[in-house]
Amino acid sequence: MTANTEAKPAGVEALADLLAEARQRTLALVEPLDDEQRNRVYSPILSPLAWDLGHIANFEELWLVQTVGGRAPLHGELGRFYDAIENPRKTRGELPILRDAELRAYMAEVRERALEVLAEVEVGPDVEDRLLRDAFVYEMLLAHELQHCETMLQLLQLVDGYELPLPIGPAPVDGDGPEMVSVAAGTYEVGAGPRGFAYDNERDRHAVELAAFEIDRTPVTNAAYTEFMADHPGAEPPEYWQPDGDGWVDTSRGRREPIAPDHPVIHVSWDQADAFARWAGKRLPTEFEWEAARERLADVGQAWEWTSSDFLAYPGFAPFPYSEYSEAFFGDTYKVLRGGSWATHARVARPTFRNWDLPERRQIFSGIRCARDAS
Ligand code: AVJ
Ligand code: FE
Questions:
Q1: Ligand nearest to the CA of 152
Q2: Which of 157, 162, 201, 294 has the highest CB neighbour number within 10 Å of its CB?
Q3: What's the confidence (pLDDT) of residue 3?
Q4: From the centroid of its chain, how far is CA 10?
């Protein structure tokens, strides 16, 4: 132990542990696979796992090693192949990215350097540099790796025979309680306050006016979605559902398992969610209705919930630390999802966290919660 280590504010050690924990999750997810599976393109809308792994390490190198530590990158221009905006998912299998032993070595070397830099920095609340203040850049790195764990789990649903190596997975919704909760008209505060980690798109915290509404206490179950399907013969089922006799089976991970009626429906598009809500005589909530009601909703956290809201900037929005995280996606192309899924790490799922995706997407762990205007 050097004097230098003793002088560190509390938190630096904890950050090293948290980084190690996130990496453990990443590696556990891909551990059951061989290199061929890690490199394989399973779907044009999902990156090969090797891309996600290299991108996780490259993001760490870019922010923790190059930006904070002022070091040169290990592999020169390699970073441009891991830029998510420059390289659409359908092209990522063809890129000259790192693979196999080289990829593993890169991940380990970047981590080693990132820990070296971590031992040199101050991350307290009074640090001038916004990237380091309250360890923002480290929180961002953690969240980023854990978010990509979820992205990898989307791909892993396509791998025949894949068994989840962690104690995660869908579970029944909490059936105990009223169908809907009522929320009074009024002014509600939404978004993240100035302190603590949040992405730029969660700020500024601001007031919104809401009319009185009701919102389902629980997400829509598979049983309810099956009824909706029975009422709409020929309609597209959720991703991974296949007809089987009179019912449906779940074919994710190459299985053929009966759909669990009391689990939340998952892998539905925005249009499916919207159509279900209309059929039920309801509608999708806005993202602010969801946030205003969230403490009274059953805490299932098993499926992201589509909202009727477009992914837009909040008043006072300022891109930080880079505009490609959020700003590049603002507009009416993407819909906001709230909550979190069984594949989401708890660290990612803040009440103010805004997820977003194209309305047609179903490979994500997306489900439905309905609302309606108060009668
Ligand atoms: C918040 C899930 C939409 O995957 O595009 C990962 C998260 N951003 N790396 C995405 C993200 C940069 C983002 N989503
Ligand atoms: Fe990323």
A1: 1
A2: 201
A3: 40
A4: 29
